[in-house]
Amino acid sequence: MAKNTSMARIPVKWVRDKAKAAYEKADTCWICGTTQDLELHHFHSVTLLLNSWAVKKGYDISTDSGILAVRDEFIAEHHDELYNQVRTLCNKHHVKLHATFGKAPAAGSEARQARWCDRQQAKAQGLETTTSSFFSEFT
Known about the structure:
- The chain has helices at residues 11-20, 46-57, 64-77, 79-84, 91-101, 110-124, 131-136, and strands at residues 38-42, 86-90.
- The chain has 139 residues and is mainly alpha-helical.
- It has one domain (11-136).
- α1 crosses α3.
- It is elongated.
């Protein structure tokens, strides 16, 4: 018998199911360019966004009917975070990012996550120079 069959579905899953249809995942990993095992990484934790938004609005999203009643509003109000502030990463790099920033990266870490992705991309392309090699050019 399946577990949790009598429990309500996790609210963020209702949001992701609805939002997923409009996701524009790239054909390659932002960092290494592979086309295998691609995943979409949100710089903003959708769970944290949803929960803080519901508290601010005074919405009860603890039931399926509660989240279904407000998910379109949430998606509309957080369009940028859901669709633009994302990167397509291969599983390997997605796992590395979460190893660095945690399972649910803290609010406020979005810019650091984006810089991490850009630095990893530069490393993968051989474009990153180290401080020592930079200074060696002038000595």
